[in-house]
Amino acid sequence: MTTGVKGRFGRFGGQFVPETLMTALQELDEAYDKVKNDEAFQEELHYYLKNYVGRETPLYFAERLTKECGGAKIYLKREDLNHTGAHKINNALGQALLAKRMGKKKIVAETGAGQHGVATATACALLNLECIVYMGAEDVKRQALNVFRMELLGTKVVAVEKGSATLKDAVNEALRHWVTNIDDTHYILGSAMGPHPFPTIVRDFQRVIGDETRAQILETENRLPDAIVACIGGGSNSIGMFYPFVEDKDVALHGVEAAGKGIETGKHAAAIYSGQTGVLHGAFMYLLQDEDGFVQEAHSISAGLDYPGVGPEHCHLHDIGRATYGNVTDEEALEGLKLLCRTEGILPALESAHAVYYASKLVKTMAPDDILVICLSGRGDKDVHTISEALGGDLA
Amino acid sequence: MSQLKDAILSVTASGDKAFIPYIMAGDGGLEKLKPIILRLQELGVTAIEVGIPFTDPVADGPTIERAGERALASGTTLRKVIETLTSFADEITVPLVAMTYLNPILAYGVEQFAADASVAGIRGLIIPDMPLEESEVVHPALTAAEISLVQLVSLTSTPERMERLTKASEGFIYAVTVNGITGARSSFANELEAHFKKIQSYTDTPVLAGFGISTATHVKDFGSFCSGVIVGSKIVDSLVAEDWEAIEELVKASKLAANEVGI
Ligand SMILES: Cc1ncc(COP(=O)(O)O)c(C=O)c1O
Description:
The structure holds two protein chains of two kinds. By secondary structure, chain A is an alpha/beta fold. Chain A has helices spanning about 20-35, 40-55, 65-70, 90-100, 115-125, 135-140, 145-150, 165-180, 200-205, 210-220, 235-240, 270-275, 310-320, 330-345, 350-360, 385-390, and strands at about 10, 10-15, 60, 75-80, 105-110, 130-135, 155-160, 185, 225-230, 250-260, 275-280, 280-285, 325-330, 370-375. In chain A, α3 (about 65-70) packs across α14 (about 330-345) and α5 (about 115-125) packs parallel to α7 (about 145-150). The model of chain A has no long low-confidence stretch (mean pLDDT about 95). Chain B has helices spanning about 5-15, 35-40, 60-75, 80-85, 100-110, 110-120, 140-145, 160-170, 190-200, 215-225, 235-240, 245-255, 255-260; strands at about 20-25, 50, 95-100, 120-125, 150, 150-155, 175, 205-210, 230.
């Protein structure tokens, strides 16, 4: 699978989309190429990131968590403190500004946890764009709070009842909507996945996470971290965090996939772990599928990790051994979540809790003066019903 | 050499228009595949497009998507469709055109798929989520198995792109008539005739119209400025309703006689 011309990361990526989308992807590619090096655009983006989103986000030394785990020093990159509560706004805002430059007045997006939907709805309210968000019916239930928020922001939320009624099916519907309304609509894809140029665009808008982290850790510790840990849904918070460190071979990069109810049960979202490759949503990537090439449903307690594939750049980093991909079960993620609440007074998103748990084990294998950074991709307010239910409470 | 192209050209040479019905293999159970194909070829269709169900059919509208879900529920897979077709391949007299998303082919193994498909009577292939740029992954194996890889040309394709697609397309050119996904529609943009003339100007490979064609009038209208039509959702619905009269009416509309006497 190294034949396609555009947007390859090693053997992964590409543009596996219906012909109707090809011209739009080319337009997007060209438009993005222009703004990438356009100072006025970058200044405008920076203005909003600083004054509206609240960047830069702190790189916080989690002292009590470090003590509790017993090992390397743990820093948290606080993407949870962004406006709307997760890293998703970095990309949503960047793409919404890009859409404006392209003269598109309407936006379509998919969402899993609802964080990308809320971020997109927010950017659209801010920039006066019309917005429609597709969301799996399962997720509409799990993330009712975010549905309400999107509607308050003036976005139309459409529940997708098809297939597994989760993120992958929302992407299918968003793609169909885009194909049908290609003339006036831009698709703000929410993760570093999909057809070229999306994985690159999303990574570039998210690399602010890694760029800031790099500057911050150099400032406080006067050196680079030994390890970085981030959770993997489609792979955007993680690639944004990893990318500025890829050339620094001494910085170990760890991506954490969702092991759901346990890898052995088959009910998980660990695409890289599965070792199977295939094509879905425009890209060749690691993909959960059966022997007939049918895409399998992913399972995770966190709606944002509930996706059967993983962005192509991660697939490549895995292939070349530059990053390590582990996985964490629902139960372990809940443990990580409680740990962070108890030691630091921070309620992480269930997605981010996967990274917290993984890191809490990894630091034990490291020296006390080593440094590990966790990308705390979002806050857990949206998840309180799910958490309560999982812990046997009756809030839900 | 394309058996598919020859079949279409021999129809248009007689003054008729090509008519290619789309069916979803396994909708209603795979045991229906044989009787449906045999009856369609009896009605005088030019070729038959055999849809393979997929879990994530992004290019399809609700009708074909639901048909695909029914087919999946009855256990249909690419492998089983090929086995079923092979079991009566000697009775198949028209070229079959498989329409499948790319991933089932990758899972099957590209070379093995091409070889088995050829034995099953498949002469053409449409992969709706594989644009020309990505087609090298399957093209050599298909060429070896003498299966024509049909390209879709959309309304959004730029002239430069249109020319490349038309020249690369084998068997016929699948001209998409609307921006969007498959499914019945009542109206089409006015500029279509010019669009089709433009496409045909690049090539002598026949240009067929597809997506949204659902009435005898559509069949005749499109037939007046291209080589024929592909009818999908309407056929799928009619097969579910077992309304063979409706199908017959559509096929008839593609024949010269129908257009001359103005039925
Ligand atoms: C807080 C949070 N973290 C992580 C993710 C996973 O997405 P990605 O892998 O693109 O960062 C999501 C997705 O919704 C999310 O909301």
